[in-house]
Each structure stands twice: as C-alpha cells, then as structure tokens.
C-alpha cells in the first residue's frame, strides 16, 4: 500500500498534463504574494501519512498494526496545479517524496535545484513564500526530512555514474538537503548580511566585504557599525545585526580538524579514512596557515579523485561531508595566508586551483590540462612569457569555476527570476561561498603584478581588480555605457551604445562595443561579427561588472588594443586624439557594395549541389551552397547530398503582385529605399529614416511569409527532392539554410544574420520554411547589421541550401588560424555537443591546435542542454555532463589533416585570389567527420592596423626574467 501512495503522490505533483495550461510569470508572482501573507504559506493543512497509503487527521496518528507513518503538511491545490502545469515546485517537503522524481533526471534535475533555490530565497527574503508559514507548527518534521535525505544520498551515491556525471551538483546539494544535522553557516552569514543591507543601505559596504572576502575582524566592524548607527536603527534591525554577529562568531570559530571524522564511522580503517586521520593529526595545532591550506587542498582533491574506489553509498556520503568541511576550513583560513613573494603567490594559486578541482568547480581532466605548477629556471626566475601563460591558465580556471555554477543553475534561476527577481542573486551567492572566490582574488593579484611588469595595464575607470579585464577583439567606440546586471534577453540595444553583459544575447543587434562575463567562445556568430566590424570586445569578471554599475548611463570611451589591454574612461577624460577618432569623416570608406554585375537571376531551376562549386558564389547562389559544392567535390564522402534554390527563383517570386499594394514585392522594396533616400535629402533625422524602413520591411516580411509559391516551382522541388536526396518531399528531415549574396565578402562575413530552418520533415512546413528564409534578410537584426556595412542593402538576394540532417554527436567550428595567439599557422576549434554547436555563443570546448604539434586546451564545454535531431523532425533537448572531453585525439588529428588539405587544395581548385584563413562548420557522428560549411574568416583590417590601437599597445619583452623571490 505504501508504493501505491507514493505513486499517487508523484502523479499529483510531477506528471505533466497535456491539458494543463501553463501559468504566466505574472500569475505565479501574484500566487507567491498571497502565500507570503498566508499563515500557512504554500500549505493547506497537516495530516498523518501512513505506510498503507492512508491519510489521517493530525490528532489521529497511524495505528501500530499499520506501522509508523509521517506527519507533515499537504500542499495547497494551486501549488499542486503549478507543479503540473509549469513543473514549478514551491515549498517542497522531502518526506514521502519519490526520490527518483526529486532527482528529476529527465528535467535536468530541476526539482532538486528548485529546492536549493527555494532555500536561498527563504534566507534572503524573510522566509519568502513561508514568511508567515515558517511558524506553521508541524508542517515539516526536521527528523523525518533528515532521514529522507540520508536514504536519498545512500541510493544516489551508490551509482558510480551519478558521481561521475554530477559530482558538482551532488556536492552542492549536500549544503541544502538535510542529512546530518549541519547548517550551511557560510550561506546563512551572507543571507543575513544581505537582508540587513536591503533594509539599511549604509550597511552595503560591510555586506560587500562579508560577501567578497570575509575575515574574522569583520565581526568587530559589524559591532562598531551597530554602535555608530544606534540612533537610526530600529529595534528589529539591531536584533538582526546581533544575530549576524552570532552567526559570524560561529563561522569563525577556531578550526577544529578533530571533528572531521566525528560522524563518519564508515570511514574507519579505509585508505581515505587513514588519510583524513593523518591530516587531523598533523593539523591539530595550526600555526602555519600556508601549510594548512596546502594540506587541506590536497586532501580535498584526494577525496574527489578516489571517491569511486569506495563502493558503499553511506561511506561516500560521509566522505563528501568531510569534503565540505575541508572547503569550509579553506574558506575561513585562506585570507590569512599572506603571500610576500611571487613564488608564494604562484604556490597559493596552484593549491587553490587544486582545491577548486577537489570541490568540483573544475573537472579532473580539465585540471590535468591546466599546468599551474611553477617551473623556475636554474637561477629561480621565470620569463614574463611563461608567467603570462601561467596567468592565462589560472584565469581560465577561475572562469571555468564560475561557469560550472552557471551551467548547473542558470536555467532554473532564469525561470524563477521571471516571477521572483531576488532569485538572480543565487548564482552570485554560490560563487562567493566557494573556494573559487579566493582563487579569483589571488589570480587578480598575479594579474596586477604581471601587468605592472609588462606595462600591459588596463585603464578601466577607477574600479578595483582591473586585471579581470581581458580584450578579445581590437577596436574603439564612444557612446553611452549600459551595464546589464540581469538577463540580457529582453534588452533593446542601440547601435551607438556600449554594453556590459553577463552574456551576449544570441540575436544581438549592432552595438558600438561589448564586454561580457560569459565570453561564450571565440568563434560564435556574435564574436565573428564583432571581429569583422572592429567592435571592441572584452571579457571581464562578475566583480568588474558590479563595479561598473555606478557608471551606467554615462558617456564613455572604450578601446581594446591589439594585445588585449582595455581602456574605459569617461567622456571628460578623453584626449584630443581620442575625440578626433569620432569625426564624421572617419567611417566614410568603411562601407562596401555588394557585387551584382555577375548575378544570374534567370537561373530559375533547382540545382544539384554536385553541379555547384566556388565559382557560382554570388552568381547563381550564395557562398554557403557554392563552397559546400566545392567541398563535395574535394571530400565526396564527408559532405551530404544537397540541392540549391538559386537567387533567380526568389527574384521570380518577388516579381509577383504584392497583396494590397498595387505593385510587386520587388517594387515595394525599392520604393522603400527610394523614399529613405528622399528623406535623407531633406535632412530627416537618421533615426526617423531607420524607423520608416523597419516599418516597411515588417510589412514586406509578413507578405513574403504569406506569399503563394508558384506551382511550377513546387513541382520542380518535389522532383529534385526525390532524385537528389533519394526520398519524396516530406519523408526525410532537412535543413534549409539562408544563403545570401552579401555573406562572406572579403570585407564582411554576415555570419548568422539570416534564418536556418532546423531538421524539418513535413512538406507544408518545408514549403513555409522556404518563404520564412526568403523573408529573413528583412528582419530588424539582419537589416541593421547589413545597413552598418553595405552601400546597397537593397541588392541582397537569398538563395537556399537544402541538405539532409545529420544527427551529429558533436559539432562546431574550425578556424584555420590561431585566434588567441594570432599565429596564422595554428588552428582554432570550438565544439559543443549535438547539432549547431559553438556558432550560437555556447560555452564550447575550445583548443588551439599547434602547427608544430600538440594542442592547447583553452576552455571546456559548459552547456548542459544540447540539440538532438530526431528522424521525425524538429529538435530534442538532451542533457550532457562535463566529466569527459568532447573531442578525442583521433578527432583532433582528423581536423588537423582536414585543415592542411583545405589550405593546400582550396585556393588551387577555386582559382580565387583569397589567401586568408577559413571558417569551417563541421561535426562528428560515430567519429566520422562531416562538413557543413566553409567561408573566408573575415577580420577587420582597419581595427588591426589602426594607428591609435597600435599606440596603446605596449611593447612587451617576453624574455624578461623575473625572480620568484621578488616581493609583491
């Protein structure tokens, strides 16, 4: 009967009902507001839940002949409905919850993450939905919750795969799910300080200190604050400060290493248990903080590395609890390791990196790729170049550690933020509560030291930790600074403003300059467009973004040099030379004209990809189809069959009458451009001209999407579909890729501006997809990017490349140049799992493949969800783990061979004068390489050769020897 109850309970809470209508964020927000005022919060009443499945009144406990039951609250009906409709679980009670459904594998562990987020919100928002319900006696029984937690982890940790694939998430969840009577004191301390600063703004500086670098002497500072503002503080605030002081005193109690094995009987007489015992013995009296931190970091790493050798679930749970206590020891004591020399600082970074790996912020294989071990020369020096390499690797680990938190929690945080804005602080709290915080501070110290030694100093306002800035793309800009602290997806950007984002929006419109915390990857469409147009682009830290918030809305000058140093200053601080950069004449020669003299608009029959090659680019079709046809000739077994809908078919349809306009679609388009020119001749403001054009383009785009397709064209499509792709139209999934004549010009890439229809099967949807692709060059984003660079944007013609889908295991981009080091002989590759990898700005697995042999690992993949392409069409989201690399040695060697062949044969076979690098999209299915696109890799030569950018780029002596004993 117990199993029957659990089944009914899970159906009630977890199953998705096709009939259930999803609640809007506004509705959920209203729901939560009600719960905050309700004395029972999200709960309806309290009942006994008996082992036979029966439910009894609170004063009628389960009888002895049935067996012991559990008493706890039931959820309100609206809470249960929300679980069904939105998969949102409020006020979760663990007791009697099905453990597999709580682990929630099919939804990327959403329920577990929501439990953690709920707990955070209760801490920072006075109980949140349980503001009054937290006093509802009997709603939750702590001993039952703890017993449930122990059973949950015993089962979860008995499975090796769970640990291998979700080590970070499981270890983090231990801080929130009751199982051993402990509280997360560090998180409680941060939550309490936040609550006080929200109510009394003068406490903000102390809150920032407690959040960013907590130290024991902060207790005295909080007490002094209370005394200073005594007359302004309410009685309740004084009490809250006293509670915070008490929490801080608990947190900063002297380290008691002897307590590590207090509740860990399963570890007695085991290899790791003996290591812990030895650690306790050697650190019973702590005098040397540096030695304590080194030994703690090593033990933390050893537990992670050897956890799978211990097969008992309960023993693994106790080891992870020890691991959490070790991180707490590091968190309390790291600030007391004051490094005096360069060698000590490098040593500290190495051990903190080891600890971050042990704590799960970096995967074990990733750590092996980060060489943070100091290798001094015979005379105990390191060159500036070797130090810089070590800094870059250490900085990468800081970024990877932050991205591990974001990758695991960002999706659920974004969902909650839509109805509860306070949820956005959860990720920041997780990062600040980790050893990665201290790793970042130490790396920042090293960055400042190297910047001074190399004269590669950033000049970013007056903010601290400026070494956190790292230029990605050279260029300069002037405009209003917009600092976006939340989600960027709903921000309407302007082409004359400079934006600081957590991450770049996937459909970013033209802007003057950009900097992001989440770099994405070097070969995403946004990065390529920025590189192409000379838009300054940099990476920065979370702290840097927060520090810049005070300058939001002010006019600034922003520049990134050819070596990556960054300048960001207020307009009033600009030099005369910097002001002259923005005179009207500067950009006069930047625009180019799309060549249309050789275009073949009379080609109105579908083409077989096998009959197309590079010479057809800009004539019958765009460069995607032309170059893929060329690749088909060169690599026939690695390029799919395909067909091309040429420019002429589009143009032929544009000659048809446009409904309600008394003119053709083509005439409507040209009339719009003519009127825009007339407006400019009358000195109409350019914003008004653009507004008019976008309104007209919206009308045209809507009309094209509804355009009847010519019967002769549809018949031609069906015949060719069968003869070329081997199946009738509607039987196999295909990609429809927009392929315009304005892409891949020598001066302009156009990467990712127009539409690709993913994996479509149904005939009607493919036919509609053709019209949607034809309409896509007239979207606001596409038009604005073109308008920025093209003299004749009216002469943009879309062709369409139609190719069958390949459900690749992983895919990405190859650039036949080393982007990070500027070496033309190296290669850059970025891959993500599934289809469409790396191009949309995912945090992709990135390498520099060296011409001299070997490779350098630059970044891991940090995307938990990826696209799979089912044979039935559309896309499916699948979950990934980070414990294994995407590319193997065989894949890398194949890519190296492919690049060599492209470099050697493509210029000869195309007889083109292009001699630059190539941008190749490719994928692997069952370790077979497939090619999907090749295009020139276009860089902005003006930005790279700018006299001003050259003037702010310091000359660095890479061979400068620096003594490791140098005082810092």
From TrEMBL:
Pyruvate phosphate dikinase AMP/ATP-binding domain boundaries: 621-945
Assigned EC number: 2.7.9.2
Domain of life, source organism: Bacteria
Record's signal peptide: 1-20
Pathway in which this enzyme or protein is active: Carbohydrate biosynthesis; gluconeogenesis
Record field: catalytic activity: pyruvate + ATP + H2O = phosphoenolpyruvate + AMP + phosphate + 2 H(+)
Cofactor: Mg(2+)
Keyword Signal: yes
Pfam families documented for this protein: PPDK_N (PF01326)
Role noted for this protein: Catalyzes the phosphorylation of pyruvate to phosphoenolpyruvate.
Identification of the protein by name: Phosphoenolpyruvate synthase
Organism: Bizionia argentinensis JUB59
């Amino acid at each position: 009967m117990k199993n029957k109850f659990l089944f009914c309970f899970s159906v009630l809470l977890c199953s998705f009902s096709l009939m259930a209508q999803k609640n809007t964020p506004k509705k959920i927000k209203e729901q939560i507001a009600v719960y905050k005022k309700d004395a029972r919060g999200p709960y309806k009443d309290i009942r006994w839940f008996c082992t036979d499945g029966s439910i009894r009144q609170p004063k009628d406990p389960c009888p002895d002949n049935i067996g012991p039951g559990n008493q706890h609250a039931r959820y309100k009906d609206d809470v249960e409905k929300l679980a069904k409709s939105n998969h949102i679980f409020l006020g979760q009670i663990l007791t009697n919850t099905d453990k597999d459904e709580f682990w929630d594998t099919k939804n990327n562990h959403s329920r577990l993450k929501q439990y953690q987020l709920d707990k955070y919100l209760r801490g920072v928002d006075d109980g949140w939905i349980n503001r009054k319900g937290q006093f509802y006696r009997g709603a939750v029984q702590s001993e039952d919750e703890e017993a449930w937690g122990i059973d949950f982890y015993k089962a979860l940790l008995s499975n090796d795969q769970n640990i291998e694939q979700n080590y970070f998430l499981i270890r983090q969840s231990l801080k929130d799910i009751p199982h051993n009577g402990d509280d997360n004191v560090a998180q409680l301390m941060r939550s309490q300080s936040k609550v006080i600063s929200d109510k009394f703004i003068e406490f903000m500086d102390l809150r920032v200190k407690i959040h960013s670098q907590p130290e024991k002497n902060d207790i005295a500072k909080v007490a002094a604050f209370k005394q200073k503002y005594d007359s302004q503080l309410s009685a309740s605030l004084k009490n809250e400060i006293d509670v915070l002081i008490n929490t801080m005193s608990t947190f900063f109690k002297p380290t008691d290493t002897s307590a590590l094995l207090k509740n860990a009987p399963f570890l007695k007489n085991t290899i790791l248990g003996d290591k812990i015992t030895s650690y306790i013995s050697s650190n019973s009296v702590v005098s040397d903080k540096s030695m304590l931190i080194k030994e703690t970091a090593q033990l933390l790493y050893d537990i992670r590395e050897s956890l799978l050798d211990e097969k008992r679930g309960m023993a693994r749970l106790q080891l992870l609890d020890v691991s959490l206590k070790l991180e707490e020891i590091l968190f309390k004591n790291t600030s007391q390791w004051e490094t005096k020399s360069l060698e000590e600082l490098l040593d500290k970074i190495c051990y903190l990196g080891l600890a971050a790996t042990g704590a799960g912020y970096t995967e074990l294989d990733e750590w092996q790729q980060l060489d943070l071990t100091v290798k001094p020369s015979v005379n105990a020096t390191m060159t500036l170049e070797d130090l810089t390499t070590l800094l870059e690797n250490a900085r990468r680990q800081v970024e990877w550690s932050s991205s591990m938190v974001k990758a695991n929690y960002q999706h659920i945080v974004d969902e909650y933020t839509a109805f509860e804005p306070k949820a956005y602080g959860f990720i920041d709290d997780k990062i600040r509560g980790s050893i990665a915080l201290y790793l970042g501070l130490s790396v920042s110290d090293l960055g400042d030291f190297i910047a001074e030694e190399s004269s590669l100093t950033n000049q970013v306002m007056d903010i601290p930790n400026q070494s956190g800035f790292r230029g990605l793309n050279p260029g300069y800009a002037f405009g209003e600074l917009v600092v976006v602290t939340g989600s960027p997806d709903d921000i309407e950007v302007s082409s004359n403003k400079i934006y600081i984002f957590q991450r770049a929006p996937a459909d970013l419109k033209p802007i003057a300059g950009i900097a992001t915390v989440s770099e994405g990857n070097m070969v995403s469409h946004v990065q390529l467009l920025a590189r192409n147009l000379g838009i300054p682009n940099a990476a920065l830290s979370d702290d840097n973004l927060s520090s810049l918030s005070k300058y939001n809305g002010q006019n600034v000058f922003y520049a990134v040099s050819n070596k990556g140093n960054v300048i960001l200053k207020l307009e009033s601080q600009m030099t005369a030379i910097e002001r002259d950069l923005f005179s009207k004449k500067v950009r006069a020669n930047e625009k180019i004209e799309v060549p249309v003299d050789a275009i073949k608009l009379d080609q109105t029959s579908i083409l077989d990809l096998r009959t197309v090659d590079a010479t057809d680019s800009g004539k019958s079709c765009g460069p995607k189809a032309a170059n893929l046809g060329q690749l088909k000739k060169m690599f026939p077994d690695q390029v799919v069959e395909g067909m091309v809908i040429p420019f002429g078919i589009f143009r032929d349809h544009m000659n048809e009458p446009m409904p309600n306009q008394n003119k053709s679609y083509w005439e409507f388009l040209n009339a719009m451009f003519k009127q825009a020119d007339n407006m400019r001749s009358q000195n109409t403001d350019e914003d008004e001209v653009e507004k008019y054009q976008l309104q007209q383009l919206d009308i045209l785009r809507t009309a094209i999407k509804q355009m009847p397709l010519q019967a002769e064209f549809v018949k031609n499509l069906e015949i060719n579909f069968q003869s070329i792709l081997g199946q009738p139209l509607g039987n196999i999934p295909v990609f429809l890729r927009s392929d315009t004549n304005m892409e891949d010009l020598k001066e302009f890439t156009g990467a990712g501006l127009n539409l690709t229809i993913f994996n479509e099967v149904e005939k009607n949807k493919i036919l509609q997809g053709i019209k949607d692709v034809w309409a896509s060059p007239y979207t606001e984003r596409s038009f604005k990017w073109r308008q920025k660079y093209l003299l004749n944007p009216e002469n943009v013609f879309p062709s369409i490349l139609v190719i069958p889908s390949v459900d690749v295991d992983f895919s990405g981009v190859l650039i036949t140049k080393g982007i990070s080091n500027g070496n033309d002989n190296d290669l850059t590759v970025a891959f993500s799992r599934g289809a469409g990898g790396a191009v949309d700005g995912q945090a992709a697995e990135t390498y520099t493949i060296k011409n001299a042999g070997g490779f350098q690992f630059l970044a891991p993949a940090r995307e938990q969800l990826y696209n799979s392409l089912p044979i039935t069409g559309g896309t499916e989201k699948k979950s990934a783990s980070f414990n294994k690399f995407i590319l193997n040695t065989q894949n890398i060697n194949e890519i190296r061979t492919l690049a060599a062949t492209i470099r050697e044969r493509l210029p000869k076979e195309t007889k083109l004068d292009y001699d630059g690098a190539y941008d190749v999209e490719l994928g692997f299915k069952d370790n077979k390489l497939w090619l999907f696109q090749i295009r020139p890799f276009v860089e902005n030569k003006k930005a790279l050769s700018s006299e001003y950018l050259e003037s702010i780029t310091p000359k660095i002596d890479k061979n400068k020897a620096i003594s490791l004993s140098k005082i810092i």
